[in-house]
Amino acid sequence: MTVLKLVPRDSGSGLSGSARLVKTRPEPPATGPDKLLQEGWLSSRKPTSLDIAYLAGVSQATVSRALRDSKLVSEATRERVKQVARQLNYQIDRNAASLRSQRTQTLALLIFEDPTSDSSHINPFFLRMLGTITRAASRQGYDLLVSFQQLSQDWYTEYELSNRADGIILLGYGDYTRFGPKIKGLIDADAHFVIWGPPIEERPTSCLGSDNLNGARTAVEHLIGLGRRNIAFVGDTHAGYPEFLARYQGYQQALEAADLPVDPELQVDGDNQESCGQNAVNQLLDNGKKFDAVFAASDLIAIGALQALQERGLAVPDEVSVVGFDDIPAASYVSPPLTTVHQDTAQAGRMLVNNLIAMINGEEVKSSQIPLELVIRKSCGAG
Fold first, then answer.
1. Strands 372-375 and 339-343: what pairing?
2. Which are the contacts of 122, defined by CB distance < 8 A and separation ≥ 6?
3. Each residue of 327-341: b (16+ CB within 10 Å) or e?
4. pLDDT tens string 78-102
């Protein structure tokens, strides 16, 4: 029987391209280096990590981790990769490895989030954290490279592999599903990175965040304690917004614990912009929905809601209470000052830097959460 087989082109064949189809007879299955030799791949060049990955049945990133004895790879897989490497007489490019191991004493801070409605293009919550991260990095002898992530496709290659930074700090808000493949790329590459936000199942030690559910529950319980019974929630509750979703779940739990109904018509989706808070309040009022409080998934949304209520002639907090989440600087300056759930950005920034540097140094890092505090001001009616 004759079969078609894809083999490397001969450089003297006079044909362009890198491969050609030829007729050949089937041969017994081969294993190990013989398989590559029979297919013509190792006849004129040194073996590479891609060859090892092909024979071992793993990804190229797994080969790299296994040859570095990374604990992220099982012992059985590490041994299989090393055995194939020995069979191929694979030699690590020490110059390249040395280049990769050199410290730049620089950390990359990548900010990824949905665009804001103004020209700042950055969440005020992150502006506050940025100063702390910069100071914390400087105290430990590191420079900080800051980048807004709208176009970059491969964070590991662009920053760590290219030797621009020793590790990466990720700050994100908004639809996480748009950035999931990039985060997975960091995990697959065994990159040094930490992220502000919800836990990542494949890499929980890289995550630092807040107890969003219980923080929201505390805020809504406070509103209920003030006699509010028809409490609206403004914020996207889809899985792509895990922090907002957790805050909605806390809102639900508080209502259920008080034997109050969870009215789906009092929940309005919105991302992290003032305009979303304004639009949500106008939508509720235009639809004739009765509500005596608004719990917003962020301060920006809450500020927009507060403005819309005032424009529609509703007194805050006499007729409608408003509570936000984050405690951005503007929260204490709006009128009336905004009751909100405070996230300690100073502690968060220091912990992100400390955890990343510990990771770079090969030390163990644990996933953790920073404490939250309800800051009571006049917008809820108890300030």
1. antiparallel
2. 111, 113, 116, 148
3. bbebbeebebbbbbb
4. 889 888 888 888 876 645 554 555 7
According to CATH, where is 1.10.260.40 located in the chain? 3-92
Q: For domain 212-343+373-380, give the CATH number.
A: 3.40.50.2300
Contact indicator for 243, 198 with CB cutoff of 8 Å: yes
Q: What is the 3-state secondary structure (H, E, C) of 232-296?
A: EEECCCCCCCHHHHHHHHHHHHHHHHCCCCCCHHHEECCCCCHHHHHHHHHHHHHCCCCCCEEEE
> Which residues 6+ apart lie within 8 Å of 382 measured at CB?
222, 226, 339, 376
3-state SS, residue 342? strand
Joined together, the tokens standing for residue 309 give 């209520």
Q: Is 363 helix (H, G, I), strand (E, B) or coil?
A: coil
> 3-92: CATH homologous superfamily?
lambda repressor-like DNA-binding domains (1.10.260.40)
Give the pLDDT of residue 317.
97
**Which CATH fold would you assign to the domain 101-209+346-370?**
Rossmann fold (3.40.50)
Task: Write the pLDDT tens digit of every residue in 233-242.
Answer: 999 998 888 9
240-256 confidence digits (pLDDT tens): 889 999 999 999 999 99
